[in-house]
Amino acid sequence: CLIFFFQAEDGIRDAQESRGLGDVYKRQGINAEYMGQKMDIQSILDSIAVNESKLQVELSLEVINSLMASYQKAVEYFSAVNDPTYKTYMDRMHLLLQREDIRATLDSGAEAVKQSDGPGLGRQVPPIEEEEKI
């Protein structure tokens, strides 16, 4: 029969149980500390509005990627603070990706990357043969 004894260090005990990271972010107000970076939700939302407007005029890979990154940051922020608004930005991201023109632009960007990789990256290199012993 084995008996284990554990001793807690002073100052580690907490009378109030933590309910997760969302509580930390809620206490910080409109700005959230997330993964070591300051997230200002208002600048994220501004970026979304700017990129959505740009997308109406300029359908480019750069604008799409920027908008997707902003949607992702908004989803991360709102889910971290347990705000159901994150669902709105998930839905907007999904709707964006369902558009034919967006998918065609993303596909053409992926094709351009494949072609810029140059020849030889997709081919197999023959194994090096051992030298024959004499």
Structure commentary:
Helices cover about 55% and strands about 5% of the residues. It is mainly α. It has a two-stranded antiparallel ribbon with strand order 1-2. Helix 2 packs antiparallel against helix 3 and helix 3 (about 60-80) packs antiparallel against helix 4.
Spatial strand arrangement across the major sheet: 1-2
Gross morphology: extended
What is the radius of gyration? 25 Å
SSE order, as H and E? HEEHHHH
Please count the beta strands (DSSP E, at least 2 residues each).
2
| Percent of residues in beta strands | 5-15%
Contiguous helical run count: 5
**End-to-end span in angstroms?**
66 Å
**Contiguous uncertain segments of 5+ residues:** 12-21, 30-36, 120-126
Share in helix: 55-70%
Secondary structure class reads mainly alpha
Q: Mean of residue pLDDT?
A: 74
What composes the largest sheet?
2 strands, antiparallel
Q: Secondary-structure map with pairings?
A:
Elements: H1 21-27, E1 31-34, E2 37-40, H2 41-57, H3 61-80, H4 86-98, H5 100-116
Antiparallel strand pairs: 1-2
Helix pairs in contact: 2-3, 3-4
For this entry, give a set of tags.
134 residues; two-stranded antiparallel ribbon
Quick take:
With 134 residues, this protein is mostly helical.
